[in-house]
Amino acid sequence: MKEFVISEAQAETAVLVGLVTQTQDERKTKEYLDELEFLAHTAGAVTVKRFTQKVNGPNSVTYVGKGKLEEIRAYIEAEEEAEREIGMVIFDDELSAKQLRNIEKELKVKILDRTSLILDIFAMRAQTANAKTQVELAQYRYMLPRLQRLWTHLERQGGGSGSGGGKGSVGLRGPGETQLEMDRRIILNRMSLLKQRLADIDRQKTTQRSNRGRMIRVALVGYTNVGKSTLMNLLAKSEVFAENKLFATLDTTVRKVIIDNLPFLLSDTVGFIRKLPTDLVESFKSTLDEVREADLLLHVVDIAHPDFEEQIQVVEKTLADLGCGEKPSMIVFNKIDAYRWVEKDEDDLTPGGKENVSLADLMKTWMARRSENCIFISAREKKNIEELKKVLYAKVRELHVQKYPYNDFLFDKYEEDEP
After folding, report:
1. CATH topology of domain 214-342+354-403
2. What is the pTM of this model?
3. Cα four-point dihedral sign 236, 242, 244, 246
4. pLDDT digits (tens, 9 = 90+) for 177-221
5. How far apart are CA 200 and CA 194, in angstroms?
6. Strand 110-113, strand 217-222: pairing
7. How far apart (Å, rounded) are the C-alpha atoms in residues 217 and 255?
8. Is domain 12-122 given the CATH code 3.40.50.11060 in the classification?
9. What values do phi and psi take at 275, rounded to 5?
10. In sequence order, what are the residues at sequence separation of 6 or more whose Cβ sits closer than 8 angstroms to the Cβ of residue 43?
């Protein structure tokens, strides 16, 4: 079966395409394309050009208008003449099978959308059998409704039985089965097998969670690439893989952490992202169960990101969709060492923007809004980590006493050996 997602980490050149609509202004479109470029870079592609178009909504046939599609094609042909081949065109939204077929026919290069790009990164990042199974299932879910475009180069076989034969006749099975129908059946059977494997894994994970003893469970959640794994390594003294790329962590890692005389379990989970494919949420159920069963959520936020407030909203919406919106939580603003702002001149009377807010003012605003449920740190520079531990200790101890009132698990004092 022909592949239609990136499967190699070689540096291919890519063109990005996004829309400016009534619900998505130019600023937001630019931020989405910045993120799409970061996704492409993570997958191993180099972005050389961006195209945007102002429309009311995506064209149901070609996503962008006919004129814009011709403009993209002219650019690709010009680059090819200059011996700078364009490897792919990546669209910022999920494309239907019809859109994919028509765009590919017009541009004659590899066409990807945001979903297929994220799925490819997940496939590249998956290390364990659990993650690989979940990613494979998500890929098949995405592929199934788009099968037809993979076989447009083949003529349908007439095959069937009955007086009419040919397309639409009864009995298109066995030797007379079309390649498309055969692939569909193979994929459905494979998906059924993967679902059974994930059900078995889910039962194993449930058993493992039930055997963890009477300890409070804390889950690190947040947008992708906000520093969850770095914070995990700092608190748990573990070696979870951390990198300045999207979706560095796919498998949930659980570690026992002891602060003072209080032991608890800390889990590092997969990061969320805008326009997260529903197939991924469905396939990663066993991984996200760590979030569902957590007693406390530490929502890690990259405060240095210019659009961190929208990232907070994306994570909170995803948590609400998972049924975790009402869980006890606190926000951990990370990367204060990377925060930048522009001070206004004293004689500048124009209204200030987000870029003019100092870190001190931002901290006052959020501390007033969230009371004791937020803290500002730098995991990389190890700033305010001791303060975080104190707050975390108080919250976990309160939850521990409530959940296990008769559990004599807390010991007098935990003395850590100095290295």
Report:
1. Rossmann fold (3.40.50)
2. 0.77
3. negative
4. 567 778 888 888 988 998 888 888 778 777 766 666 678 899 999
5. 10
6. unpaired
7. 10
8. yes
9. 55, 40
10. 6, 9, 117, 120, 121, 124
